[in-house]
Write a structure and sequence with these properties.
The N and C termini lie far apart (75 Å). Strands 1-3-4-5-6-7-8-11-12-15-16-18-19-20 form a 14-stranded antiparallel barrel. The protein is 7% helix and 60% strand. By secondary structure, the protein is mostly beta strands. The protein has helices spanning 5-23, 32-36, 50-53, 136-141, and strands at residues 66-81, 89-97, 101-108, 111-131, 145-170, 175-200, 205-230, 235-241, 245-260, 268-277, 286-295, 298-307, 310-314, 334-337, 340-352, 355-364, 368-371, 391-401, 406-428, 431-454. A hairpin with a 4-residue loop joins strand 6 (175-200) and strand 7 (205-230).
Length: 466
């Protein structure tokens, strides 16, 4: 049975756009000051980001009333070189909003509470490529080709919204505990279309189309358990992310294949739409430890984040399909992850009263072993192409405290590149020709944040015991 390498090509590049935010655990940060400190705040968070990084720290801050990011944008670029030959290139540049959060805090029955909304992941990308160049590879397969057109369109969308309630309480003068409970609404979809059209000198037209689409929906719960201990000269905090608890899941897979103009023995048309498929979303156990160490009126922030791995599982369980071969062809959408350890540090520099400067860095290692980006329809084994990048993030910014609000301005930068082997298939008389080339992925992102914290509830705390 021949491998349909075109499917592998399409999904390898399609899923690059979405999986960086799912296989790299520190790709996005939340909370105004926490963004400037690159998320290195497990033992020192002082903004609403505590609901995400360490809920116990809620007992260590004043009532924030209401906080939100009023301006949060990013400029990102993705470039794929040597996709359809040495001179080919796919590129995409986007300027859009970044995942952000909003919420506030209140007191109730001598306990501290916070409510929050986090747009955890937001991706809506597309890549397109068109070419009419008759390369040597094409002429080798179709010697009488006179004109040629190839068109590739890739789309991906990921949306993950969290709605949370956080509780925290002082156990004694130095030790606090806290819990955040989030409900997650997760939707992941992708689509691709690949067309080859070849016209020969005799005016014969050969056409090949391969279209794929999928959807995954998951609703579930995420729990974070945090603790904070106050030593005389510094604080130490920990945060435990409980594995994702899935409540509802559903998947869908669409596949269309057309070969026309080759001949009656080889022309094909297949069209499938599988609905209500069994699917899974998994997020592993993670433990973070951090410390905030005062240096005069400034502070050093240190952090370690350990995330466990995941055994191989099917993200979407797709039935075997008939692709014109002797046996039904399996469709695999598998994922597995390795454990990763990230570390980082941030420095909060006191300049003068009510004005601080921030600088930080953090590692962000890719966890994927298999990242469910291969739809390799074959019966004689699969060729795995694991796509992911290791990033280092850098952030700088300022915090200006005014009488009526705190204003935070800053930027975050990450970049990375990866080289991997990917196949391109061109069909001739039912035969798939495999050409392998090293494709280079380059990714850059600048984030720009202007945040504001307004103490709307400062004089109206909800405390039922007063």
């Amino acid at each position: 049975m021949k491998r349909l390498r075109t499917l592998l090509l399409i999904f390898s590049f399609l899923c690059i756009l979405s999986y960086a935010q799912q296989g790299n655990y520190k790709f996005n940060n939340f909370g105004n000051r926490s963004i400037l400190l690159s998320g290195n705040v497990t033992g020192s968070v002082t903004d609403l980001g505590l609901v995400y990084y360490n809920p116990s720290r809620l007992t260590e801050i004043e009532n924030t009333g209401f906080a939100f990011n009023i301006r949060a944008y990013q400029l990102s670029s993705l470039k794929l070189s040597n996709l359809l030959g040495e001179e080919s290139q796919l590129s995409s540049t986007n300027f859009d909003g970044i995942p952000s959060m909003a919420g506030g805090t209140f007191d109730l029955f001598n306990n501290r509470f916070a409510y929050s909304f986090i747009s955890k992941t937001r991706i809506d990308n597309a890549l397109g490529y068109d070419s009419d160049v008759l390369s040597d590879d094409i002429l080798e397969i179709y010697p009488d080709a006179e004109s040629y057109k190839v068109s590739v369109l890739l789309k991906t969308n990921v949306k993950d919204d969290w709605f949370g309630l956080t509780w925290a309480k002082k156990i004694n003068e130095n030790f606090s505990l806290g819990v955040s409970l989030f409900g997650s609404i997760y939707k992941y979809s992708g689509g691709s279309n690949l067309n080859h059209t070849i016209r020969s000198a005799s005016n014969r037209v050969t056409f090949y189309e391969n279209s794929i689409g999928f959807n995954q929906e998951s609703y579930g719960l995420l729990i974070k358990i945090g603790g904070n201990y106050h030593f005389p000269k510094f604080d130490i905090g920990f945060n435990i992310n409980v594995p994702y608890i899935e409540v509802y899941d559903k998947g869908r897979f669409l596949y269309t294949k057309v070969i026309a103009g080759v001949g009656a023995d080889f022309d094909q048309f297949y069209d499938y739409d599988f609905k209500n498929l069994y699917s899974q979303r998994k997020e592993p156990l993670a433990i973070s430890v951090g410390s905030g160490i005062p240096i005069g009126r400034s502070k050093l922030h240190l952090n370690l984040d350990y995330v466990t791995g995941l055994m191989e599982f099917d993200r979407i369980n797709i039935p075997g399909i008939d692709t014109g071969e002797e046996n039904t062809t399996s469709v695999l959408f598998e994922e597995s992850r390795k454990s990763v350890l990230n570390f980082g540090a941030g420095l909060e520099v006191f300049v003068y009263e009510n004005f601080n400067v921030y600088g930080s860095f953090t590692t962000d290692y890719n966890s994927f072993i298999k990242n469910a980006n291969i739809f390799d329809l074959s019966s004689d084994g699969n060729r795995d192409v694991s796509i992911g990048e290791d990033f280092i993030q850098y952030s700088v910014g300022i915090d200006l405290k005014l009488r009526w609000a705190s204003i935070i301005i800053g930027t975050n930068y990450i970049n990375g590149s990866n080289v991997f082997t990917s196949p391109l298939s061109i069909v001739k008389s039912g035969i798939v020709n495999d050409n392998y080339a090293n494709t280079k992925l380059e990714y850059n992102r600048w984030q720009f944040v202007v945040g504001i914290e307004i103490p709307l509830l400062e004089n109206t705390h909800y405390n039922m015991n007063n």
